[in-house]
């Protein structure tokens, strides 16, 4: 249902207006390539969806007017008291997982603010908890060297001047007739200025631009406005109307600094920066007994994202008491253990030259190609040759030498009888030229 509501919103908007792109902006205000290259080198971040709705264990935003009546949903803050919340604990989980940045839902679609906002009482200071969650996370991220990022929802089903109250209502009763969108846009600007000024976020992760009240013109104005406050703050493409999202084709024609495929690994793209946002479980916000992804899926998702030249923003939904589920913490720590061995094949690498397959994928840096081996049908792994490239040597990263035969057509590698890592063993191919000089090999690899 949620996907349908989003898709209809996007269809309606795209039908009524051509989507603005970065070409409409003053090119001097676009985030610099230097900053974007640094961001894309981080490769792996933690997404956190949290708010009073954790008390119900239903989806943040979307369960309002659905599993939870709005009147009930909108008063949960009165009993939200996450006394076990410890920002440093959360940030250390991200650090131990090998994550290099952290994005918190400061304000999701339900409009609740996890920081003390001067512009609304619907915030953390009106709860029994009365402490600045966003500020504590920003401080802890600075202490542990993690880039601090803020998620901010364009749509706000709670705020009186935002026209949509109930996204599910088709009778028109879900619309606030007296809402004044210009006042809501000013509210957004006031809040975003206080967030940037108080917490200096590395990146702003916008979301929820698909509903009709938000226009491309507002998006262009907002991007420009934000750049007057912090020139190099990174802004994703969900400030505008065009983004990859769930089940939508990747796009390079958008407003913002990078594309945001959701719940899927983006396609190999050496030109457009992109970041896949994916949940470790099924729901974005915490759900009791939610189904958690296997370690194999988690590691191969990260590797295939990097192999596609993208970042992975991996989501955990903390519990109402302020702690993260121990099983989810253990899982991301297992990812961190893998990264301790193989991180050189992920961080600051580029994707390609192969299009990732279910059996293998590649990342690259300098004169090295990192061959991620996910599964094999035997002792020999045969991959297409890199035209005009000579492989000087091959070895398991931090491990044993690998023998191989290379022809003009392919490379046949003799794998160890038992792969050092059954989820993703990385083999290094040292070559006689810069790995980035190799064009993407588009043919359908039979890996
Ligand atoms: O509606 C939101 C959803 O709740 C969640 O925040 C995801 C995260 O990317 N974004 C929207 C759905 O595309």
Structure characteristics:
single chain, 447 residues, alpha/beta, TIM Barrel, Immunoglobulin-like, 2 domains, 7-stranded parallel sheet, 5-stranded antiparallel sheet, 9 helices, 17 strands, binds ligand FHN
Percent helix, as a range, is 25-40%
Q: What quaternary form is this? A: single chain
Q: Which ligands does the model contain, each kind named once?
A: ligand FHN
Q: What is the helix/strand order? A: HHEHHEHEHEHEEEEHEHEEEEEEEE
Overall number of domains: 2
Cα end-to-end separation? 37 Å
Which range does the strand content fall in?
Answer: 15-25%
**Main sheet specs:** 7 strands, parallel
Looking at CATH, the homologous superfamily of the largest domain is Glycosidases
> How does the overall form come out from the CA principal axes?
globular
Description:
The structure is a single chain. Helices cover 26% and strands 18% of the residues. The chain has 447 residues and is α/β, with parallel strands linked by helices. The chain folds into 2 domains: 22-345, TIM Barrel; 352-437, Sandwich (Immunoglobulin-like), CATH 2.60.40. The strands form 4 sheets. A 7-stranded parallel beta sheet has the order 5-4-3-2-1-9-8. Strand 3, helix 6 (181-199) and strand 4 form a beta-alpha-beta unit. The relative contact order is 0.12. Ligand FHN is lined by residues 6, 60-62, 207, 245-246, 262, 277, 284.
């Amino acid at each position: 249902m949620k996907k349908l509501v989003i898709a209809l919103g996007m269809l309606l908007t795209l039908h009524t207006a051509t989507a603005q792109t970065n070409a409409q902006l003053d090119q001097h205000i676009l985030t610099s390539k230097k900053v974007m290259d640094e961001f894309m080198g981080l490769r792996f971040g933690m997404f956190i969806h949290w708010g009073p709705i954790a008390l119900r264990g239903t989806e943040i935003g979307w369960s309002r007017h659905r599993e939870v009546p709005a009147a009930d949903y909108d008063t949960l803050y009165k009993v939200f008291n996450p006394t076990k919340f410890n920002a440093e604990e959360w940030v250390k989980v991200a650090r131990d997982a090998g994550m290099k940045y952290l994005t918190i839902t400061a304000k999701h679609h339900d409009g609740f603010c996890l920081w003390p906002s001067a512009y609304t009482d619907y915030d953390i200071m009106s709860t029994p908890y009365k402490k600045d969650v966003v500020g504590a996370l920003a401080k802890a991220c600075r202490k542990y060297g993690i880039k601090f990022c803020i998620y901010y929802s364009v749509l706000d089903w709670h705020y009186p001047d935002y026209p949509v109250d109930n996204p599910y209502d088709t009778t028109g009763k879900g619309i606030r007739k007296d809402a004044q969108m210009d006042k809501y846009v000013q509210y957004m600007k006031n809040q975003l200025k206080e967030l940037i000024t108080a917490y200096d976020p590395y990146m702003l992760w916008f979301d929820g631009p698909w509903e009709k009240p938000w226009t491309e013109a507002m998006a262009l104005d907002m991007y420009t406005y934000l750049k007057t406050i912090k020139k190099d703050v990174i802004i994703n493409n969900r400030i505008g109307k065009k983004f990859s999202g769930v089940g939508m084709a990747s796009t390079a024609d958008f407003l913002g600094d990078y594309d945001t495929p959701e719940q899927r690994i983006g396609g190999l793209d050496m030109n457009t920066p992109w970041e896949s946002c994916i949940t470790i479980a099924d729901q974005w916000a915490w759900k009791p007994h939610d189904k958690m992804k296997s370690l194999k899926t988690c590691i191969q998702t990260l590797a295939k994202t990097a192999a596609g030249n993208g970042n992975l923003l991996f989501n955990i939904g903390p519990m109402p008491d302020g702690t993260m589920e121990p099983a989810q913490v253990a899982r991301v720590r297992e990812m961190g253990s893998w990264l301790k061995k193989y991180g050189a094949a992920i961080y600051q690498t580029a994707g390609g030259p192969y299009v990732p397959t279910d059996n293998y994928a590649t990342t690259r840096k300098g004169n090295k190609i990192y061959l991620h081996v996910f599964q094999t049908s035997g002792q020999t792994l045969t991959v297409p040759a890199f035209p005009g490239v000579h492989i000087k040597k091959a070895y398991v990263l931090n491990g044993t030498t690998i023998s191989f035969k290379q022809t003009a057509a392919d490379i046949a590698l003799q794998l160890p009888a038992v792969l050092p890592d059954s989820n993703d063993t990385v083999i290094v191919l040292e070559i006689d030229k810069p790995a980035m000089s190799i064009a993407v090999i588009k043919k359908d690899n039979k890996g």
